Amino acid sequence: MKILVTGGAGYIGSHTAVELLKAGYEITIVDNLSNSSIDVIDSIKEITNKDFNFYELDVKDEDKLNEVFVKENIEAVIHFAAFKAVGESVEKPLKYYENNLENTISLLKVMQKNNIKKIIFSSSACVYGDPEELPIKETAKLTTTNPYGATKHMIERILKDVYKAETDLSVIILRYFNPIGSDSSYKIGENPKGIPNNLMPFIVRVANREIDHLNIFGDDYDTKDGTGVRDYIHVTDLAIGHIKALEKANKDIGIFVYNLGTGTGYSVLEMVKTFEKVNNVKVPYEITKRRDGDIAACYADPSLAKEELGWVATKTLEDMCYDSYQYIINRK
Ligand code: UD1
To answer: How far, in Å, CA of 269 to CA of 293, rounded?
Structure first.
């Protein structure tokens, strides 16, 4: 079966591409390389020893995208391509609404034109805002606090409306918690340009002495040790979640939403301590004030994905910390 992976050169997209190829699927990747590099495409081929076509294009370009669908005989789509920096989305909201919404609409139109009925969409736990109840179930109230999150929420809504109008579709929305780690080859991983915003990319740079210390944003939250609690999930577990979602889409028509998380929350201090122990390094830190827009705690109830997809996260926090660091120290 031939799968189109949009944004397949990105962090989660590239790991999913590897798992798809390992599972025997054929793939085609489209990516505009706006936040990734062509080397990732070569690395995916190296890791899997499999070949596929890559097109450097913007999903918003309907004509070019249509050519890819026709030429490649695409049968299903996994849609990752999006801008994802929360802070930037607050400063440049139109850039985010334009890119994330337009490229999804363009993709859905091209799918319609080519009679393609299966799509898996990369959503985020940020659609839950500051959750009223923990662990978070898929039925929780949706609310977002920044333009990036709003685009994910709006796209979920668009998909629901498209499904209502075209009821023979299989639409699977995956809400990711906090992906970290790297493929065990350490040839692909998370490598943001500039100073990282997210916790794990920041920790690895401090450990690698590229940045002198970590700022921990607040230790006065109502959590186990006062620091923020999140559901960190290994990116390979997350990638495998997409394979399970594809199996579901091949079997059932409908629109389905699943949390992809481990169900366990870890605090920032627990992350730092585990990272130091597993990698035998020091991560100096200072406690600073809370970051605007942050919430105290967020972790999934992943039981629906287990029941309906047969998916559970298998990697431990130690695996995640080890793999995140190995990728950075092995990177070319
Ligand atoms: C962020 C995004 C979210 C996205 C998720 C996964 C924001 C507001 N939200 O969530 O939309 O889905 O990443 O990519 O950016 N922390 C520090 N020091 C740091 C960095 C982070 O103490 O230098 C703390 C944070 O306060 C938080 C935890 O670490 O408690 C995790 O932060 P981060 O990795 O940025 O993820 P989220 O805020 O959960």
So the answer is: 20
Break the chain into its structural domains and give their ranges.
2-180+231-261
CA atoms within 13 A on the CB side of 146: 22
Give the atom of ligand 1 at the shortest distance from the alpha carbon of 202.
23
Indicate which residue's Cα is closest to atom 1 of ligand 1.
198
Q: What is the pTM of this model?
A: 0.97
β partners of residue 66: none
In the chain the first and final C-alpha atoms are separated, in Å, by 33
**pLDDT class of 269 with cuts at 50, 70, 90:** very high
Q: Which of 320, 292, 306 is nearest to 135 (CA)?
A: 306
For tokens 């026709």, what's the residue?
Answer: 70
Q: Rounded to the nearest whole angstrom, what is the distance from the C-alpha of residue 5 to the centroid of ligand 1?
A: 26
What is the rounded CA–CA span in Å between residue 239 and residue 283?
28
* d(C-alpha 149, C-alpha 159), whole Å: 16
Whether the per-residue pLDDT at 308 is higher than 80: the answer is: yes
Query: Topology of domain 2-180+231-261, per CATH?
Result: Rossmann fold (3.40.50)
The residue whose CA has the least distance to atom 5 of ligand 1 is 178
Which residues participate in catalysis according to the annotation? Answer: 148
Q: Which ligand 1 atom lies nearest to the CA of residue 87?
A: 15
| Numbers of helices and strands, H then E, in the chain | 12, 14
Question: Using one digit for the tens of pLDDT, what is the confidence trace for 32-56?
Answer: 999 999 999 999 999 999 999 999 9
